[in-house]
């Protein structure tokens, strides 16, 4: 799956779940119409919407788990948990829709909603973690290729090793650029962009500086220049790693260190539609927040 599409799917379905589940639970808060008693047609429609959203999410989640190179077992288990909680939610919401006056059935549905959103949140966090792990793996490969360039013993050896370094750089730039687009925090995006720019600039200078050193190994200036460029490349790699994991000062200030998009999305959702979401978020959000903390 294209990773831009994957990211869009994750965000889209998470918002879809939040909207549909909170609307359903909010409907239960209002109670049945005074004109009609018994079954709630609106609740049945909303319950069907949540069931369909769950099924759609499961299909995409299974595809993500199947194609992921990291955390495959954890992702598969998370998908199965969403399936299990989705079935519990389906039964609970259907029973509530049949008897909307029952406070017991309402409570059961709210608990099911918490569990479902918690399972969905966990799956999304794991998918996001897998993306970050993939980037970190690329960074590790580039670091090893960089060290190989530094240890080149002659110009031909340097040319061969730098060629491999260049190939890994192209792969890293693609993955890092994608992650940059995914970052929500402007500071982290800027940090990633700056690190990528510094890496590209200094990687270009790396070959020339290394070549000059190999030609004149006894000249202190050539060694100092090569070492400086290597240090700049290493710092750029560290900057990409920091931004990718959302460990910037801005993230820490906002209390989102290491969890990035989802925590911020939950905060923003609180004020997106006050009447519909305010009370319901207080009901269902604790489980999601606990899951966020547990995963991090």
From TrEMBL:
GO terms for biological process: cell differentiation; cell migration; cell-cell adhesion. One of its GO terms (molecular function) is structural molecule activity. InterPro entries: Alpha-catenin/vinculin-like_sf, Alpha_catenin, Vinculin/catenin, Vinculin_CS. It is found in: Cell junction, Adherens junction; Cell membrane; Cell projection, Axon; Cytoplasm, Cytoskeleton. Keywords: Cell adhesion, Cell junction, Cell membrane, Cell projection, Cytoplasm, Cytoskeleton, Developmental protein, Differentiation, Membrane, Nucleus, Signal. One of its GO terms (cellular component) is adherens junction. The keyword Cytoplasm applies. It is a peripheral membrane protein. Pfam families: Vinculin (PF01044). Residues 1-27 form the signal peptide. Gene3D superfamilies: Alpha-catenin/vinculin-like (1.20.120.230). Belongs to the vinculin/alpha-catenin family. This is Catenin alpha-2. It comes from Erpetoichthys calabaricus (Rope fish).
